[in-house]
Specification:
- By secondary structure, this protein is mostly helical.
- The chain contains 15 helices and no strands.
- The chain has helices spanning 19-36, 41-70, 73-94, 97-104, 112-141, 151-176, 180-203, 209-240, 250-279, 281-314, 319-350, 356-387, 391-415, 418-437, 439-442.
- The longest helix has 34 residues, at 281-314.
- The radius of gyration is 21 Å and the shape is globular.
């Protein structure tokens, strides 16, 4: 799963809503409640994963509010850029094996433990290598992050990169085994420990306190989640489906899916670095916090899509039905969320301190609006993954990366950080419109080939 270095506040800010504005929010709350208490695992698990994102968002918002109070703007901007680099490197190193587990662990049977542990080991080694290579290239690739080459920050950065790769995969494994409640729990543990360590770093006047808090929290969250996963969830899954066969041609699938995911993650994580290099650390901080707030909407779509893939593996004949339901529910939930962010952007960003609202309100509105066309783009990618027909999924992620990074680079000198928001909205719309008009080609067709169901 994809993530950002933080998450937004929810339910604490925004202007007073009129009755017309409140109606879509009330409808979204009712839809969410029905999903949480539904017996249908598609909606129940998808909504629990969405709740995980929202909880992480609220606690992540508190983390960054405190960070902006306890550290200066330059430290926040540099730390967020370093964390963005860490997330990109973790994504490179984890080889998109989280999505691999979501797709194949439900049908792995007695091979599940070996599959999970193999994915952990491969990703830890690859992530460590990627982080080490990045540190060697910092003087040329991102000279403002030169502080990462000091011994303690360097060690912390490398270990945190490897740990985050495993952290993402454990979420994928828990999702695949229908344990989304534990995804909520381990994200709460991660967020709370991170805040406590952030305060300790500020108390000790550590300039790298933001980065150290992430590293320490990852260690604790990994221990908690893997006790549940490896001692309870995996053994139960292996007992209930002992005769399941390992997937056919998994390496080819994993390689293609990984190639596409790199481009998508690059779009998410390279923009703060582009802003840093073009406009400096303070503007990078303003962009980063606006993205943190808006990205939770992307996570809701992503989580519902993960539930779709898991249920499509178990019942491939219902993929089209499930895809349409996910699109409807995502549109309802995100429509309300976008309305709140567009209306309340200045007040929400005011929580992070002086300057964030003035510089980032329009940016936040544009980023929030971009989450609506992203529903169609993400659904098309997830349907392709479920069917093991990855040409469309890879193509969409490559196109998204090229459009976002190209438009951001072109618009920043003209529009400032608002140009990054225009880039995101334009890129998502350019991809979503033809997908929506041609949805009969990728959604309203028969289920995947039964020979590829595992």
């Amino acid at each position: 799963m994809y993530a950002t270095p933080g998450a937004p506040p929810t339910g604490r800010s925004g202007p007073r809503r009129s009755a017309p504005a409140a109606r879509p929010l009330a409808a979204a709350v009712r839809a969410g409640a029905r999903g949480l208490f539904s017996r249908d695992p598609l909606l129940r698990n998808g909504h629990l994963l969405a709740v995980s994102s929202l909880v992480n968002a609220a606690l992540g918002a508190l983390f960054w509010v405190l960070a902006t109070r306890w550290y200066d703007d330059a430290a926040v901007g540099l730390s967020y850029s370093a964390l963005s680099a860490m997330l990109l490197l973790a994504s490179i190193g984890q080889l998109n094996l989280s999505d691999f587990l979501i797709r194949f662990a439900p049908s792995a049977g007695r091979h599940t433990r070996r599959m999970v542990l193999t994915c952990y080991g491969v990703s830890a080694v690859a992530s460590t290598a990627a982080a080490g290579a990045f540190l060697l290239l910092v003087p040329r690739a991102a000279p403002d992050l030169g502080f990462l080459r000091s011994p303690l920050p360097a060690l912390c950065f490398v270990l945190a990169t490897a740990a985050y790769a495993v952290f993402v995969m454990q979420d994928g494994a828990l999702t695949a085994l229908r344990r989304p409640g534990w995804v909520v729990a381990e994200n709460i543990v991660f967020a709370v420990v991170k805040i406590l360590l952030l305060g300790l770093g500020a108390l000790l006047a550590l300039a790298t306190g933001i980065l150290l808090s992430w590293a320490g929290a990852l260690v604790v969250a990994l221990l908690v989640a893997n006790v549940v996963l490896l001692r309870h969830a995996v053994p139960r899954h292996e007992r209930t489906s002992p005769d399941a066969r390992p997937p056919a041609r998994p390496v080819r699938y994993a390689a293609a899916d990984y190639a596409g995911s790199l481009f998508r993650m690059a779009a998410y994580t390279l923009v703060p670095l582009i802003v840093l290099n073009h406009l400096g650390p303070e503007q990078s901080a303003y962009y980063s916090l606006a993205w943190v707030v808006a990205y939770v909407l992307y996570l809701v779509t992503r989580n519902l899509g993960s539930s779709l893939v898991v249920e499509a593996v178990r019942s491939p004949e219902r993929l089209v039905e499930h895809g349409r339901r996910v699109m409807r529910h995502s549109a309802l939930l995100l429509g309300a969320g976008v309305a709140v962010l567009v209306a309340g952007a200045p007040l929400i960003l005011d929580l992070f301190g002086e300057g964030y609202s003035d510089s980032g309100a329009d940016l936040l509105r544009l980023l929030a609006l971009s989450a609506l066309p992203n529903i169609v783009v993400s659904l098309a990618i997830d349907v392709s993954r479920a069917r093991r027909r990855l040409r469309l999924a890879v193509g969409l992620q490559v196109a998204l990366c090229v459009l976002v990074l190209g438009l951001t680079t072109a618009l920043l000198p003209v529009m400032g950080i608002t140009g990054a928001g225009v880039a995101w909205l334009a890129a998502e719309c350019l991809l979503a419109l033809p997908l929506l008009l041609g949805r009969a080609r990728w959604l309203a067709t028969g289920p995947a080939d039964p020979r590829e169901a595992s």
